[in-house]
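Hi U.,

Before I forget, here's the chain from the pilot set. I'm dumping it here mostly so it's searchable later in email.
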Amino acid sequence: MPKKTKVLIAKWVIVFSLLLPWTVFAGVMRDAGKTAWFASQASTKALPSAYVVVEPNCWYCMRYYHEIEPLIHAKKMRVRWIVVSFLQPTSLGKAAAILKNKHHSLALHSNELHYHEGVGSGGIKPLKVISKSLRRKIARNNRFMDTHEIFSTPATIYRDQSGKVHKLVGLHSSAELSAMLNHMSHSFR
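Structure:
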């Protein structure tokens, strides 16, 4: 193969590898907007904004919720919650109970506030009868998680002020949360 061809291929590989994360992660933001998300609070004020994927029986999600809830309450950030179901047999019923409740964010708050650490179980009572509509919403959220290779919860997805999309999994220190807030875009788009 001629040297010019090799150089051209190498350049395209570099360009493609640099553009791929932007394209893939931009898809994450687009697809997150198509899930059965709900907002932590209605706010007309532009605030740092993120999607957070949570599982009702996830201990780490409960800890993360308690870390960011004061920031949400103080109107320092906006969150759109995406509830998934995969950890325990009760997860589907608990996710459905949160999504069925007229006040989703209050139901999530109750689940996290009354979390049973000894048994690793969210505090909300699971629904025994789950409508097809709720099952479809939760399945759509689970597909989102699978499609975008989110292998555990909690997962935080946000766009920084330069437009780059970030996907972070797990708990974060106070310093990491502060840095994340300082770089977060005020838009979900």
